[in-house]
Write a structure and sequence with these properties.
The complex is a heterodimer of chains A (400) and B (306). With 400 residues, chain A is an alpha+beta fold. Chain A contains 11 helices and 13 strands. Chain B folds into 2 domains: 205 residues, Multidrug efflux transporter AcrB transmembrane domain (Multidrug efflux transporter AcrB transmembrane fold, Up-down Bundle); 79 residues, 2-Layer Sandwich (Alpha-Beta Plaits), CATH 3.30.70.3400.
Chain lengths: 400, 306
């Protein structure tokens, strides 16, 4: 039936416009998306050494706090040394002081005590800790002592053979196993203290990060506005809207009706990306936006490639239907190779990267998947839907 | 379809590419990058104004003092646009400049008290840079492997060489224009690498396709030229769309994101350039040498083109 395509397209445009309208005017999307320190602000915490500290101590403390923040999954914190004995930690997505203190002030003080209450070993004697799920004992943490620790542990298991050695974590006794044999290899295991593998993993991470070289106290914690500056964020948001409008107009100008379809696909792409961010609870930061910009460029490029191929086919004398089919088929291989290699690279970046690099990789993966669905799937569907419209007669109007 | 002889002029393009590379690497070593406070650290002021102030007000004063990319954070508010307490991080300033800044703040924003004044280190450490570079190198290895499977090792190696070329040239030119950079340089470089990768694959795909359906007697030079001309419209349209979008971000975006858009802009221009005029001629040079080596001597002279 003639005109079915146009009606379908109008229907989709209306739905997409309604979604955009709802999430800008009625219930702003920014209420759903979690934003990072650079875009939304967070809590500004000042830690101060309670004892005289050397510069090396402070640097070590900074590294440990950064390690912990990264392991605890705090997205892109900012950590700086201030003056001679302070560390500033800016955390995003933290509502209040208590939560911030809980996140960075966390310690994992490990102590092994003999039956007489004397401390045998502490976390300092460890080389590594790792979490595992034991068949019979549930979540456990495996410990490997260093050379010194191994000696101490061997001596202690010999001295207290048949007696009980208690294991304390943050001053709480979590286990008091009886020593059955001398352990000369410096390996030990903590079990029974963890409700989940995740908790065991967190303890292992904290043990690995080590204790702070000097005791530190939080002297100030206040909520702060975004590091990029509210003014700059506003300007950038306007700039992004202008850039998007430009893209929409250029595509319309070059490809006419097909350009309109590409624009609709791009609009759906953005809904999918933001929807996925909300669904996964991902934290959006500037590097994340960079990932979205790159995948949007890849999405636009995919449509440019497809349309160029369709034009080639039309020039070769095919009918529009056949040209669309062949054009897609020819373009798909290049688009697939580009998308797959981008996703592979982004996955590697996510796995090996930290902070900013990860923020970029997450949105890039989401964005490339969404761009494939929309730039290929949606565009194809809408083009096929329009095959039987009056526009087909006028190829200039259809594809520019 | 246009009929440009890209490959015929390859020597010219190689010289241009080389000159650009030399300028870029030279600037990187001679001029160096103009590192902002994210890298160098600076001074933090804790300021308490008598009346609430906005980030815009402060930024306009800082702009006039040429330290517009300082970090301005309002304290005690996450969403509000004004606050009496402000955390301000500026680059290290001379005593004179500090005096000027403090006077300008009083006269143009309002009376305030300095409740804290401290030196701070950068938020961006060498370890983070090293970790980032390592991650990119491993990702490049993955790309090479993928391209070796889907294309072949010559496409893979010339492709990755050109991707690194784009990244290095961009960083070098950022050093040359001495644009001050923040940690935004990380997402900028990642975007450039990603864009460059996409561009390379799209164009190599066309060469691969034409190689498969190579016409009898068509020289490698003709084939490569034909591939580049077939994809030229797409290369130009995509580059123009992205360049215009980035120009909008550069012109209208705020002071703290301009380094990002400027770097991407340079990268996209060179990405489009290097796919056609660096990566493809490089690939041609390699494959042509292979074909000549395997061709019999009699045909070699007959088919020699230059």
């Amino acid at each position: 039936m003639r005109g079915r395509g146009i009606i379908g397209l109008i229907l989709i445009v209306v739905v997409v416009a309604a979604i955009y309208g709802y999430f800008t005017a009625v219930s702003p999307i920014t209420d759903y998306v979690k934003e990072g320190l650079d875009l939304k602000g967070g809590v500004h915490v000042v830690l101060q050494a309670t004892k005289p500290a050397t510069h090396a101590d402070m640097q070590k403390a900074e590294t440990i706090i950064a390690y912990r923040a990264n392991k605890l999954g705090i997205s892109e914190p900012s950590i700086q040394l201030q003056g001679s004995n302070q560390i500033i930690v800016d955390l995003a997505g933290v509502k209040n002081q208590q939560q911030a203190i809980k996140m960075i002030g966390q310690t994992a003080q490990l102590e092994f005590k003999g039956p007489n209450g004397k401390v045998i070993l502490t976390g300092k004697d460890l080389t590594s800790a790792s979490a595992a799920l034991d068949q019979s004992q549930g979540p456990i943490v495996n410990l490997q002592f260093n050379a010194e620790g191994t000696k101490l542990f061997a001596a202690a298991t010999k001295q207290y053979l048949g007696q009980v050695i208690s294991i304390y974590l943050d001053k709480n006794m979590i286990e008091a196993p009886k020593v059955d044999s001398v352990i000369p290899n410096g390996q030990a295991m903590i079990s029974g203290g963890f409700s989940s593998l995740k908790q065991a993993q967190q303890t292992a991470d904290l043990l690995n990060s080590g204790a702070l070289p000097i005791p530190m106290r939080i002297i100030d914690a206040q909520s702060v506005s975004p590091t990029l500056g509210q003014d700059s964020i506003h300007a950038s948001a306007v700039a992004i809207l202008i850039a998007m409008a430009l893209i929409v107009l250029i595509m319309l100008g070059i490809y006419r009706y097909a350009g309109l379809i590409a624009d609709v696909a791009l609009a759906i792409y953005l809904i999918l990306v933001v929807g996925a961010l909300v669904a996964f609870g991902a934290v959006l930061t500037l590097p994340g936006i960079a990932g979205i910009i790159l995948s949007a460029a890849i999405a636009v490029d995919a449509n440019v490639i497809i349309f160029a191929r369709i034009r080639d086919e039309l020039r070769a004398g095919r009918t529009l239907g056949a040209a669309i089919d062949h054009g897609f088929k020819n373009a798909l291989r290049a688009i697939m190779d580009s998308n797959v290699s981008t996703v592979i690279a982004a996955a590697v970046l996510y796995y090996f990267g930290t902070g900013e690099v990860r923020g970029f990789a997450v949105t890039l993966i989401i964005g490339v998947l969404a761009s494939f669905v929309t730039a290929v799937g949606v565009t194809r569907y809408l083009l096929r839907l329009s095959e039987d419209t009056v526009l087909v007669r006028n190829q200039k109007l259809f594809l520019g | 379809m246009p009929h440009f002889d890209f490959i015929g002029h390859r020597r010219t393009w190689f010289i241009v590419s080389l000159v650009v590379l030399v300028i870029a690497v030279g600037s990187l070593f001679v001029r160096g990058l103009n590192l902002g406070i994210d890298f160098t650290g600076g001074i933090t002021y804790n300021l308490t104004f008598q009346k609430p102030v906005s980030a815009e007000q402060l930024r306009s004063v800082l702009d006039k003092q040429h330290i517009g990319n300082s970090v301005i954070q309002l304290v005690g508010t996450e969403t509000g646009h004004t606050s009496r307490t402000v955390l301000l991080e500026t680059p290290s300033l001379s005593e004179h400049a500090r005096y000027d800044l403090q006077n300008a703040l009083t006269s143009q924003v309002g009376k305030y008290q300095i409740t804290g004044l401290n030196k701070v280190t950068g938020t961006f450490s060498n370890e983070l840079v090293k970790a980032g570079i390592l991650a990119v190198l491993i990702a490049s290895l993955a790309i090479v492997l993928y391209m070796m499977i889907r294309f072949d090792f010559r496409f893979a190696l010339t492709g990755i060489a050109a991707i690194f070329y784009d990244a290095i040239v961009t960083i070098g030119l950022v050093a040359l224009i001495h644009f001050q950079i923040s940690q935004n340089i990380v997402p900028a470089v990642l975007i450039i690498i990603g864009y460059s990768l996409n561009d390379r694959i799209i164009i190599f795909d066309r060469i691969r396709e034409n190689m498969r359906l190579r016409k009898r007697g068509e020289s490698l030079k003709e084939l490569t030229n034909r591939s580049l001309n077939q994809t030229l419209a797409r290369s130009i349209i995509t580059a123009v769309v992205v360049i215009l979008a980035m120009l909008a971000l550069l012109i209208f975006g705020g002071a703290t994101t301009q380094d990002l858009s400027a770097a991407i802009l340079i990268g996209v221009v060179f990405g489009a350039y290097s796919s056609i005029l660096f990566a493809s001629p490089l690939w041609y040079l390699w494959v042509d040498a292979n074909e000549r080596a395997s061709a019999p001597a009699s045909r070699r002279t007959a088919k020699a083109e230059r």
